[in-house]
Amino acid sequence: MRRSDVLREQRGDDLSDTTLRVGARRARRRRSRRRAWVARPTTVVAVVCVVVLVLWMGLRVNQARAAYAGVTEEVATLQAYADDDFAALSSRDLAPIIFSLDELKRDVSRLQRAVTLPPGVHQIAKHLPWIGERYRAGHDMLNMVALLSEAGETTAQVSREMLATLEASGVSADGNSPVGTWLDVLTRHQAELEQVAAQVDQAQRIRARLDEAALPSAARNRLPTLDRVLERVGNVDDLLGPDLPAFRAALGGDRPVRYLVLFQNPAELRPSGGFPGTMGLITLEHGQLQDYRIFSAHELTQDYMRQRKERRPQPWPIQQYFPQDGFLLHDATWWADFPRGAAVTMEMYAETDWPPIDGIIAVQPAVVSDLLRITGPVMLSVDGEEREITAGNLYEEIERQRRLRRAGDLDATSHKELIALIGEELIERMKSGDRQLLARMAAALLPAAQRRDMQIYASDPAVQAMADRQGWSGRLIPDEGMPTLAVDFANMAINKASLAMQPRMTLTLQAPENGQRRATLDVVLEHLGTNDEDPLYGGFQRWWTEVLLPEGSGWIASDPSPLPDPEALNGGSYQIDLFPGQMGRIHMEFTMPDAPSLLLRRQPGLRTAEVTVVDARCQQSQQVSLTKDVRVDLAALCR
Q1: What is the pTM of this model?
Q2: Separation of CA 514 from chain center
Q3: Whole-number mean pLDDT of the chain?
Q4: CB 219 within 8 Å of CB 136
Q5: What is the DSSP string of 476-498?
Q6: pLDDT at 241 over 90
Q7: Which of 205, 194, 67, 211 is nearest to 138 (CA)?
Q8: C-alpha pair distances (Å), 530 with each of 479, 536, 539, 575
């Protein structure tokens, strides 16, 4: 064999060996990759879940499509009902709503079953990357809708029975109707309503944790509707659940209850809302009005003075500016913290021979105006003349009678007598009104209580606790967990010029340092009256002003200096004298704990105050009108 052939044969053998070695290495790498892939259980599980999910989706897609179509249809139907005036609905009108809610509940249940993986895979799928967050968000959305649809159906069924009873027995029967009263219906269904409250609470918790970004766009578009539903039911959630027994007791569910009603006059402003020159007594039993009486406050005060055991000391401002024969009953709700003054009023009332009371309700003229907007104008014969009393002219008509008597017409009907006539007419309309009218009147009272135009105090601790939780009690500090700033006023000149005073306030906050913020509060009072007016309505004003600083604050300095009021709040009390056209100021410096938000408290009866909150770090500000309590997001000012 030639040498060249031998060399070629050797090279071929070498190439064969090399090829074999390369092939062996490649095989080992492939086996290694297969072992590594098999060693990753998450990968295996993910692939298996995806395969199962695809197969499962193929089997369930038609069921899910049909259920989703049903849900969409019922939601659209219920949204159409949502545009209706619920106060105008009768018990018959609720039947189709109950049917739609029941259908929605069934379709949601079908959809939940159609989109839920088998038990073992379900738990794994919830924790998979990308897939898991969408799977969880979708189920959260469905769970929330299921809870609300079931709660809505129960509520609608109870409401239907309650409305039917109300239509049969009214609000002023003797409480012995064979069908009972609307309040009796609520009592019978207390267990179901407590379950409704629990379902709403659970739905609110789900909404708080819901990952909106993980939802499909169609589902995200439904969230505003769900949020409106949650907001509406959240307003009565506690009343349906834990507060229902106290709510029932407040309306005479167990025995007749009687309340002393104070009609406050904002033109004679006091820290609690105004001087209560006219009062009333109302008795409720089983949620129905049994009887009422409206009278002058001086009638009750004189009876108290005849029978009191001792003269009570007066609060410092009253003793300083208009001292009297001891602390009198019609002044007893002096303090800005309404429950404090109401408790003192009840103690004084107990020293009279008037029938016992269970609580006190203070009412601003704004509440009567709200009711007149619902009932329509009242036509009254006053001094031989027909007068139309409307929501817009209520206060002017009342003061017209005062002016007539002030001008010398002593035979004219007094303003207090006119208040009584208006009150009696509204009560009679309520007694004879249909269910729609009653529902609208009742609906107007809830926001009035929440903005402190109506304040409630009860001797029953459970009822009072309910009023506190609902924000109806007029507490100086409505929420113990929320830093509160309150500036309260009283015109101590003993005239009717309070509505001619316009307050404005500016709160400036410096940068936080060691958990505290230095702050300045500037209060401006402007007398809008003129020298051409009757001094009773536009004359000299002497303003006693008291400031409540947030808990943990420290007063530093003020101009003017604080008054020597032994009961002054932590921000002190001050005196500002104003003649028509003048302006007065209070400048205060203090420190307050650094907090993310601050509650600005509204004083009932006060002309609407504009408040500007400024963060000095960035000179960003927020201006609010105190038509109600306002929470200011301090953390957002310098974002």
Answers
A1: 0.83
A2: 34
A3: 85
A4: no
A5: SSS-TTS-EEEEEEEETT-SS-G
A6: no
A7: 211
A8: 40, 12, 8, 21
